[in-house]
Write a structure and sequence with these properties.
The complex is a heterotrimer of chains A (508), B (112) and C (314). Chain A is built from 21 helices and four strands. By secondary structure, chain A is mainly alpha-helical. Chain A has a domain of 228 residues. In chain A, the strands form two sheets. A two-stranded antiparallel ribbon of chain A has the order 1-2. A two-stranded antiparallel ribbon of chain A has the order 3-4. Chain A is globular and about 70 Å long. With 112 residues, chain B is mainly α. In chain B, 69% of the residues lie in helices and 0% in strands. Chain B contains three helices and no strands. In chain B, helix 1 runs antiparallel to helix 2 and helix 2 runs antiparallel to helix 3. Chain B is elongated. Chain C has 314 residues and is an all-alpha fold. Chain C folds into two domains: 106 residues, NADH-ubiquinone/plastoquinone oxidoreductase chain 6, subunit NuoJ (Four Helix Bundle (Hemerythrin (Met), subunit A)), CATH 1.20.120.1200; 182 residues, no CATH class. Chain C has eleven helices and no strands. In chain C, helix 1 packs antiparallel against helix 2, helix 3 runs parallel beside helix 11 and helix 8 runs antiparallel to helix 9. The N and C termini of chain C lie far apart (64 Å). The chains are: A mainly alpha (508), B mainly alpha (112), C mainly alpha (314). At the B-C interface, helix 1, helix 2 and helix 3 of B face helix 1, helix 2, helix 3, helix 4 and helix 5 of C.
């Protein structure tokens, strides 16, 4: 509380938090007003500016620890507070980088329309990209449970049209299934927020943390909100909507959906348990969430292993990688104190969210280029790909290094942190799951690479050309995922200082 | 029992009725209607909480009342998008449920 | 049992019956009719709860516009739905019924255990209301204390409209939205569509203007305007505009854009985004509400009208 009051001083640079949300909103409104041709230009111009805002926030957080803002000058509980800590800053920068990559990559498919009256997909893509960006930024800095509900809905309405941009029946079906899951998820979340307000009279995360008592109303609310958010994050067994939705979308859209959109609701689960209701966690509830995570890792990897199409394989891999995020909950639970403690496990979860975002965006983009070149994405027909499209394949392989968790990648650092948290807390069973998941991930990626390294069964007919700059985007993102473990970024460095851990601990 | 509590119990029942429809009816339009029932049950609960918070010469707490109005708009947008998706899916040959897998090419003719 | 409680018991039973009907009815069209009457009944509950702003919104949107949307969809899908004969297995229905009952019971238990002295922000809202110059505390929450939510909810509306538009088939994209043909020949409808709109226009403006101090506001006013426009369209007395029209695109974003502009000016003159300088707060809020009302009315009507159709003109 006192911490928040201090950070609201205008000097703290809290205005950047408003900018991070309002800037993409203004861009999307201009795009709607200006039409498809204009939308592509506004979108491209917005990318570097949005990245600059995210970097400014990260810089402010590095200097001040946290940034805060009261929108309209009204303090909670009547008003709405925004706040950024190290976790928010990491996710804001990650989102800005991946969104910029997706935007650049999409310029080929969703550039200014050539004929007048066209541009349905162009307008849809850019408006959705900007909308999702604004919604994610709000999810990362929002500190009011209803305001976060609005963020979740913004995210849904931005994400669903991305799934069915091509208008074919299978993608329409996937989009509708996704929409229904997302709507039920957010209505359950809202129900929980309503019960919290009824029992404790506030929706502000900081205030709730001070007044929530472990009692039935709080448990019911936490259960409903968590269930709703898990459906939106596609955690096993609520993942059914994800593979068709993410695999059927255009590659740039898949990248945004799989790398970023599912992280928005995951981040709110983190906020809910670590910040709003820290005293509510019980060993059993946390083990249960961890069990779902473990189920996701094993089931998602096993299904990825059985896919014959590359994009579906990558989508099932997302189902599995989401599982790791939820291992944070049992691993961060301090049984002696009876509460969640921000530490190694939370830092590992954050790093997993960030490195998976880079790696998965790179994978979907390179899978898209492979599909363009070959005219299909059936893995059995990948023979000769290594020679024909080496850069795309390299990007795919490097992203795979991070997903498997090989050093020095970000994925390695993340899984290493989670493993050491498991060892520290004596919960060896989660360590087994982490290692097993890594082996399965390695297996399904190696199968793809082996196919690509084989000689083609028949002489390759005519590969369609792909511009070099389009291959550069996934390669750069994959390199980021790999270098994340090396970069020595203070907040991410395992062992040394662990800024994420320290900052997360600071407000508990 | 006070009337307010009675409505609160109604809200709780509405959530259950709606969820049941969502889970058991395969027809997509029925799922959309059921979602609206769940939503309005949640809003009603919020209204009950607002009424309980009557204070300062007001008949109810204005904060939850305002949030419900925002929620109603969002629920309407959601319904509109879902209905538009469903009608488009139907035209593209996808049927009125998830049971008929939409075929890859979407070449089935729409119903007359 | 007091008269009031038995009245409310009756309303509650009717609401639950209508809800159960709209889930259980075999035919989707009659389920939809059940849902519309459900919306009207629940508005009575909102009046009993003394939440007149919400009651207005619920009748106009929850029952009216949503009902229109669902009815026209049910009419279009009738043939396809009639072919759906498979019922989910009995086991699944039993498990689902048990699970949903458990959810309802635990929510009901929570409601019964809510604290005796209910926490409330009513006092805080009333205390802060003079700074906004408004007399209606609900509007104070919507336009000042939680203006950020209200602004972003308009963005939700715009996003869902673009989402609906992007579902149009490629040829004819940017053309006219589909109309609600089935009603076009109705004489009563035509008569209403000729006589009601002027009254509706006045009523809508009244709701917005008065919303500052009494129940109502930009949102409820906009719903009335949207309903009037839809009436004209449905009666075949007018055509929906092509979605590529520049004026339409500008009007769709005018509300949130004005809101953001005033909000940004607030940083300079009142110290925070979406803050209003005190002596001018009420006039600024009304200044924002006018374009907001136009945007909301337009978007609500266009959401009901659906994606543009190739057959409806180039």
């Amino acid at each position: 509380m006192t911490l928040l009051a201090e950070t609201v001083a205008p000097a703290a640079g809290g205005g950047w938090l408003v900018a991070a949300i309002i800037f993409p909103v203004v861009a999307l409104l201009l795009a709607v007003a200006g039409g498809a041709r204009f939308a592509a230009r506004v979108g491209v111009l917005a990318l570097p500016a949005g990245l600059a805002i995210a970097v400014a926030i990260a810089d402010g957080v590095a200097k001040h620890g946290v940034l805060g803002y009261y929108v309209g000058g009204w303090a909670p509980p009547l008003g709405i507070a925004l706040r950024a800590d190290v976790l928010s800053a990491a996710m804001l920068v990650t989102t800005a980088i991946v969104a910029s990559g997706a935007g650049l990559y999409a310029l080929h498919d969703f550039g200014p329309p050539r004929e007048p009256g066209g541009g349905r997909q162009t307008l849809g893509f850019w408006v959705s990209l900007l909308g999702a960006w604004a919604a994610l930024n709000l999810a990362f800095v929002g500190r009011d449970l209803f305001n976060l509900y609005v963020a979740l809905e913004l995210l849904t309405f931005a994400a669903v049209p991305l799934v069915c941009l091509d208008g074919r029946a299978p993608t329409l079906q996937a989009a509708l299934r996704y929409l229904l899951y997302a709507l039920v998820g957010s209505v359950l979340y809202l129900l929980g927020a309503v019960l919290l307000y009824g029992a404790f009279g506030t929706l502000d995360v900081e205030l709730l943390a001070t007044v929530v008592r472990p009692e039935p109303a709080a448990w019911a609310a936490a259960a409903l909100m968590t269930a709703g958010l898990l459906a939106k994050t596609a955690l096993f067994p609520l993942h059914l909507w994800l593979p068709p939705a993410h695999a059927g979308a255009p590659p740039a859209a898949s990248a945004v959906l799989s790398a970023l959109v599912v992280k928005g609701s995951f981040f709110i689960v983190l906020r809910l348990w670590f910040d709003a209701l820290p005293g509510l966690a019980t060993a059993m509830a946390m083990q249960f969430i961890g069990l779902l995570g473990a189920g996701a890792i094993l089931y998602g990897s096993a299904l990825a292993l059985r896919q014959s199409r590359l994009k579906l394989l990558v989508a099932y891999s997302t189902v599995a990688q989401i599982g790791y995020l939820f291992l944070v909950f049992p691993l961060a639970f301090d049984a002696s104190a009876g509460r969640l403690v921000a530490g190694t496990a939370l830092a590992g979860g954050l790093l997993q969210a960030v490195s998976h975002a880079f790696a998965k965006a790179a994978m979907f983009m390179s899978a898209g280029l492979v599909a363009v070149a070959l005219g299909h994405d059936r893995i059995e027909g990948f023979g000769g790909l290594a020679r024909a499209r080496p850069v795309s394949l390299l990007a795919f392989a490097l992203a795979g290094v991070s997903l498997v968790g090989l050093p020095p990648s970000g994925g390695f650092a993340a899984k290493w942190l989670l493993l050491s948290a498991a060892v520290e807390s004596g919960q060896w069973w989660w360590a087994v799951v982490i290692v097993l998941g890594g082996l399965l991930t390695g297996a399904y990626l190696i199968l793809v690479l082996m196919r690509a390294l084989q000689e083609p069964a028949a002489p390759t007919a005519s590969l369609r050309p792909v511009a070099a700059w389009r291959e550069a985007v996934p390669l750069a993102l994959a390199l980021l995922a790999v270098l994340l473990g090396l970069a020595g970024l203070a907040p991410f460095q395992p062992g040394a200082g662990t800024g994420a851990v320290a900052a997360a601990e600071a407000f508990q | 029992m006070s009337p307010t509590t009675l409505f609160g119990l109604c809200g709780a029942a509405l959530v259950g009725i709606g969820l049941y429809g969502l889970l058991t009816d395969s027809r997509l339009l029925r799922k959309i209607i059921a979602f609206n029932l769940v939503g309005s049950g949640v809003f009603l609960l919020f209204g009950v909480i607002a009424r309980r918070g009557a204070a300062a010469e007001l008949f109810g707490d204005p904060v939850p009342q305002a949030l419900v109005i925002t929620g109603i708009v969002v629920a309407f947008s959601a319904t509109a998008l879902a209905v538009a998706l469903l009608l488009r899916l139907h035209e593209a040959g996808g049927g009125a449920t998830f049971d008929t897998p939409a075929d890859e090419a979407g070449v089935k003719r729409p119903d007359p | 049992m007091s008269f009031e409680l038995s009245y409310e018991l009756l309303v509650g039973l009717l609401v639950l019956t209508a809800a159960a009907w709209s889930v259980a009815a075999r035919d989707t069209y009659s389920a939809t009719v059940g849902f519309v009457s459900y919306g009207l009944l629940i508005a009575i509950m909102w009046m009993q709860l003394q939440a007149f702003d919400v009651a207005l919104a619920e009748v106009a949107i929850g029952s009216g516009l949503t009902g229109l949307l669902l009815l026209s969809a049910a009419a279009r899908l009738r043939a396809a739905e009639a072919r759906v004969t498979s019922r989910p297995p009995v086991m699944l229905r039993i498990v689902a019924a048990l699970a949903c009952t458990a959810v309802s019971v635990s929510i009901a238990a929570t409601v019964l255990r809510l604290p005796e002295s209910a926490p409330s922000l009513a006092g805080a809202a009333v205390g802060a209301l003079p700074a906004t110059g408004l007399g209606n505390p609900v509007n104070g929450v919507l336009m000042a204390f939680r203006a950020f939510d209200t602004l972003l909810e308009k963005v939700v509306l715009v996003l869902s409209l673009v989402g609906v538009w992007s579902l149009a088939p490629e040829p004819g994209w940017s053309g006219r939205p589909r109309l609600l043909h089935p009603f076009a020949d109705d004489g009563v409808l035509r008569f209403l569509a000729r006589t009601l709109p002027p009254i509706g226009l006045l009523f809508g403006a009244h709701l917005m203007w008065n919303g500052a101090d009494e129940p109502g506001g930009a949102f409820q006013g906009a719903t009335v305007l949207a309903a009037m426009w839809l009436l004209v369209l449905m009666a075949g007395l007018g055509e929906a505009p092509r979605i590529r029209e520049r004026w339409l695109r500008v009007a769709v974003v005018a509300g949130p854009m004005t809101f953001i502009t005033v909000g940004l000016a607030g940083i300079g003159v009142a110290g925070a985004f979406l803050a209003y300088p005190e002596p001018h707060a009420k006039s600024l809020i009304l200044f924002v509400e006018l374009p907001m009302m136009l945007t909301i009315a337009l978007v609500l009507a266009l959401l009901v009208a659906g994606p543009p159709e190739p057959t409806a003109g180039p």
